[in-house]
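Hi C.,

You asked whether I'd gotten around to modeling the 315-residue construct. I have! Everything is below, sequence then structure, no commentary in between.
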Amino acid sequence: MMDGDSASGKPTPSETAINHEEREKWGFSASDVVYHFGTSGISVAAATGVTHPLDVLKVRLQMQLIGQRGPLTGMGRLFVQLVKSEGPRSLYLGLTPAFMRSVLYGGLRLGLYEPSKYVCKMAFESSNVLVKIASGAFSGAIATALTNPAEVLKVRLQMNPNLRRGAIGELRRIASEEGITALWKGVGPAMTRAAALTASQLATYDESKRILMRLTLLEEGFYLHLISSTIAGTMSTLVTAPMDLIKTRLMLQRESKTVGTYKNGFHCAYQVMRTEGPRGLYKGGFAIFARLSPQTMITLILYEKLRQLAGLKAV
């Protein structure tokens, strides 16, 4: 005997839930894929546009006193020096490859997190924090491996204010003079950093949201996203600052004549600690925090909003 809803042809609540679950599990369209990766890329690109000057300062700070110990120029003083000697436009050096990288890298890094988490959940029948960390590490590493040339190009332009050939010209020069493989300089530390960044950033954000919703009155919305993204930005800065410095040094080896060639990321870390001290690994650390924390906040808040507008569920 059928109840009223079934007799009238309307699905019961339980049937609706099953259909929704099946659709979420199996059903996706081309537009879903576009929305999924598009919202990721747009979010990261917007955050990059706002925080790019801090990225330029970070790279300059990381390249101070290579192979030497000594007092470092602070971020505020470096900012004044940079604007005075190179002009305000110097704060936007490398912006074109930064945007190109943010759309591709950001779209993949955030976009692959949800599918990776889903696959891990299916494989291990769990969605605990370790699954989230593994999902973030995988998506970050893959995204960086594919987009490393844009990062190399970006940091090269950021260290060369007098470069007149532009992004395409510099790309051709690197390929012709140093070889195509030069575009993947520092890819190992870059992948390690991206894996650690995405794992610490998205897993922390994901878990922070879950805990805050359980222990407080906060619900899905701006304030929950703001607090969770602030926590995530702080955590990811602490975890990734040394990896960021190693990645920058490797990518800029040709630009630095004061130290011998680093063989790999471990050798670079050893050399920095031996010649510059343990604190050398955190050169530009405050600039990294000043950039990464607001970038994380802008990215994740905008990402959640765009997902909502696109009809996708919250992270």
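If it helps when you're writing up: Confidence is low (pLDDT under 50) at residues 1-27.

Thanks,
B.
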